[in-house]
Every structure is written in structure tokens, then in C-alpha cells.
Specification:
The protein is mainly α and 110 residues long. It contains four helices and no strands. The chain is elongated.
């Protein structure tokens, strides 16, 4: 195959293609949620999230033209940027209240 998504489909079947596509969907879902959250709250994190979105689109687009993708066989250099971005984005998503300096009192137990 000439692209990563076809490679996963041909070697791992339907479950393989679903797992790869679910990672992309999760990446874009978290990124869009972060962009919407930080748009009017924190301009610096908003710009960082836009940059992460652009990088994710680039990684996704590259997977159509190369066999190396986000889960490469034996080579960590090609898929490492995706996983680093995913870790940072998940951390930012989980710590949204701390990073904006606001405390949400709705969820506090008295």
C-alpha cells in the first residue's frame, strides 16, 4: 500500500483501521474542545492549541502519502511528534481549570 491507512487496513483488518482512525478522532476531538475552551480565556494556550491542530492536520495528511504514520513498526522518530502532541494536549485538557486560574465551585464537595 502507498499510504498508512491502507497499510493498517490490509495488515490488521477492520479493527486495525478502527483503532488508527479512533486515535485521529480522539486527537481532533480533544484539540477542538481545548480551542473552544481557551478562545476567550487564555490567548497563549489558544494559539498553542491552534498550532497543535495544524500539526495534527499535517500528520493526518502525511499518512495518506507515506506508509509511516502514528504507529510505525520499529521506528520511533516518525511517530514521536504525534505522541508528544497528544500527551501535551491531554494534559492541557485535564488541567483546564488550573491553567486558566479559575476554580469551578459547582463540583466542590462541601
Amino acid at each position: 500500500p502507498h499510504n498508512y491507512i491502507l497499510l493498517m487496513a490490509s495488515e490488521n483488518g477492520i479493527m486495525g483501521i478502527m483503532s488508527v482512525l479512533s486515535l485521529y478522532i480522539l486527537y481532533f476531538y480533544l484539540n477542538i474542545k481545548n480551542i473552544m475552551y481557551y478562545k476567550n480565556r487564555n490567548n497563549n494556550l489558544y494559539i498553542i492549541m491552534i498550532t497543535f491542530l495544524a500539526a495534527g492536520i499535517g500528520i493526518f495528511w502525511r499518512s495518506f502519502f507515506e506508509v509511516s504514520g502514528i504507529m510505525n513498526y520499529g521506528y520511533m522518530a516518525t511517530d514521536l511528534p504525534f505522541w508528544i502532541l497528544m500527551i501535551f494536549m491531554t494534559y492541557i485538557y485535564q488541567n483546564r481549570e488550573k491553567l486558566t486560574g479559575k476554580i469551578i465551585t459547582e463540583y466542590m464537595v462541601y
